[in-house]
Fold these 3 entries.
Entry 1:
Amino acid sequence: MKTNRRETTTPTLRAEMRPRSPAEALEPGRAPLRPKGVKVRRERKALSGFVRLFSGLLTLGLVLMVAAGAAVGLLHQHFEQPGPLKEQRTVAIPKGDGVIAIADRLATEGVISSAWAFVSNYKLRGMAGSKMAALKHGEYVFKPGASMREVLDVLGEGKSVLYKVTVPEGLTSQQIVERLMAEESLSGEIAAAPAEGAILPETYGIEKGMGRQEILDMMVVKRAQVLQAEWEKRQPDLPFKTADEALVLASVIEKETGRADERDKIAGVFINRLRKGMKLQSDPTILYGLYGGAVQWGKPILQTEIDAKSAHNTYQIKGLPPTPICNPGRAAIEAALNPAKTADLYFVADGNGGHTFSDTLKEHNQAASTWRKVEKEIRAKQEAAGEVGAKADGSKTDAAKSGAQKAEAAASIPNPPAEDAVQAVAAPVAAPITTLNAAAAAPAGTIPPPVKKPKK
């Protein structure tokens, strides 16, 4: 027989469970007694303190992390925002300054707003694994509103101000060293002048304070590279075997003309004469043979100097001089290795800043005669200008003195001694633009005395 679950509670038990009064009904119920045999576990005081400490540390760490994140965010924002500079400014960073000293200098100059923010960002980026380049010394230009990041990039990449040092073509190594020593933007000494022709004349970009020996070494390396590159592109069957010989010829070409459209033609004349075994008879070689690296290229040449024996005087020696007579430029080197293919053996000034080229002595004599007429007119104008000056102050002007000196020098040069017809060359003229001496091929008296050309 099934028992009804609702009837399991006896009436007596139900009566006992009922509250006896409304007040008793409002009282909370009492917890049942603990079963017998179960031990009471008491909380340990030490463990409770450790938990509280650990919880506090976690809370503090979390707070610090949030604060650090906020600080890094503010630093990053400060690092990327435009700086306080209102106009372009140049700042010199001395050699040996550290990050803090550089930051202080930049802040003092108004380039950055906060030195500590600059240093902090630099250090934090390094700690975070970013590859930070060492800040380099030099002189830098900072644009208006440059951010700290842009300033740091400029200093890290060493984008310092570049100065230009120009070395003109045709100077001797001694003259180039003297120019570098006089350049105030450079520093240090030069041990010794390099070999003649070892420097490539060009315009070089340098940093302020760069060592003089350092830039000189750079010029020497550059010349070696250019000469080697041009040597590999040379014409076949040239009358020299080494690049150094080509450099010697290039130095002579450099002193013969400053016109770009004539270098290969003059190179062609010298190449033809070398192939025929003729003397080059180039006036600049006379001057270099006499005075070496201290030569004055504009000096008039006297007959006694033409006759002077020296290793470089191509009026006295056959073939090329033993060394270059100056430092030729890139264009002169190219001309020496790729000369114009002509039959010309002579050239003389045309009165317009260029030269007239000839392959026969007869044509050359006619061109030389034309040049003498032009030179005579130039001299007359110079003397006339000198007379006007003399009337004004009773003394000769510089123009008159120059004209008189040139006329005296020209008149003092007799015709060179006659040689065989194969050795005939153009009449000598004053460096730096010179011609070959044609008088050597003709009997004495058939060619007027040599004359001087205007300076380059």
Entry 2:
Amino acid sequence: MPTPPEQVLLDLIARGEPFTATSDDGAITVRVENWVPCIATAIHDGHRLRDELEARCLLTPGERLREEDPYTGDLAAALPITVVCHDSRYEYDLNRPLAQCIYTVAWGREVWRRPPTRAQRDRSHASHRRFYRVLDALIAAVERRFGAALVFDLHSFNLSRHTDAAPVFNLGTSQIDMPRWEGVVEHFRTALAGIDLDPIATSAQCDVAFQGRGYLIAHVDAHHADTLV
């Protein structure tokens, strides 16, 4: 698998041919098997934390894993166009705006034994910016081909934090233009509810376990008028 610098990755997207490539910093893998109007992202799939940051982190790998979203990259692979992120959200959270993407306290726990230095923060911020430049290029390419795009922003949630009433599938809609997209959302929710996961009783609801308030949808809404996340 090639590991190109950002500009080469952007050129691959612009060229419009199938490819799979991991960015030269190892942070993201972009895969285009064929061009369709749907993109799947797994922005919290990653567990990687730079050595210089792991030495400063108070949390064990197991503690970090509780709030990461393992296997969402595997789930994303069902679609032909995917962006899977390999860095832990504890380095920088792509579902937060740049100024807030490095935690100080997360889920009530102090994250750092010693806070990251300015240079270390700058490196993490650079990865955050790079991801959104690549995602913007990918969405723009899909919109040019099809006139619109659908992005599946895939996450998991820690069941121990929720009651038994939490659905198997949760759609976060708080930032969706529902007068425009409600029919698409309801079609998707109905399809999810019909999946057979025997012996698990399947359920699909909107805004129960989480409401879809993350930065990825806010960013896409601000830059891509014809894309639904």
Entry 3:
Amino acid sequence: MRPIAPYAAFASFGVFWGVWGASLPATRAQADVTDAQLGTALLFVGLGAVPAMLLTGRLLDRVGTRLSALLLGALLLAGLGLALLAHDLAALIVAMAVVGAASGAADVAINAIATEAEAWSDRPILARSHGIFSAAVVVASVASGVALNSALIVPPLAGVFGMAALLIAAGSLVVWRGTRFGQPDSPARPHTERDHAGGARSRRLWPLLAVGAVGAIAYAMENAFQSWSAVFLTDVHVAAAHIAAFGPAAFAAVAAVARLTLAPLSRSHPAALLVAGGAAAAIGSAILAASSGVATALLGIALAALGTAMLFPTLLGRAVRGVPSRQRGAATSLAAATAYVGFLAGPACMGLVAGQAGIRVAFLSVAVVAVIFAIIAAPASRWASSHLGGRHAQDAREDEAAASLADGGTQRASAMARRTPRA
């Protein structure tokens, strides 16, 4: 696999979510729905994503990583469908379900290719890929805000998703060229070792689900800001579209810088990074909820971004570090799929709370969730890592032993062939 493939995949994914965040007020207006109805529609994003995510992990193991390029193509089509067809609540719900299925499948796929590339290259590709995702969100958010505020693109919502589709198509082509069909090259394994690997998969189920559950909280906080910060600036501070777009843009910009600069800490001080990140997210959420102007609101958004930026990459990287290479893709898919439920449910829950108590209270509830995360994340990650690392270290040693035996057998056979006289 070419290292550029995961970077292009995350950049394409970031383009979509940047357009999504900046366009959510326009989507709400086009469909003519309230905050509560928008929150209900966003729940169907999760309902569409869960079965797609469960299917994607198995397909990647059978078909190969090139499938991720096709899934990114499906995501761009889903975005275009949302922009063109969502003109009432019923159509919006259907479009959200389709977007959820496409985005959930694509998220699992791009995380899988990033962890595979990291395993082959021994570089922090996963954290850097998440940073590129955030950088792409910044550019897409700002560009979408400018486009939505101008009269040059008609209709504006379809126009911005159309521009995003072109960029995602280009990224999908890079991913296609950088990946391949078929399973990764690996030494042959005897039948008894495959049976052992099946047992290892069953033993790692609960630790990976624990990592995914904690990651779901981190993702819920992250996407609550990404999806609702523009709505907050629009409703609370009466910001124009191009100003409101700075909400998700500022969040993604700070997250990008944090992910590209703090990546080493995810390996050297993971527990401290998780606790400090949760605390920063709580303070930032509280500042945003109490903000009296756009400047103060952006400060809260930036602080929350700094706190949430490294949470999921730290959790995922720590969990899969000791997993054998032949099982790393499946492990990544399970943890990422579980965590992605929070990524999808966060904005939906925000909409429901905002519809009942107001959007300020909704962001204040994010602060409470961040405090809970800061308390439970480090112990849960330590427990999961100890179980995964201990067992998988043994699995990895057995993999290496099997590979050594296979290499030794090949060398002995070659030596015998050289010693055997030709007729």
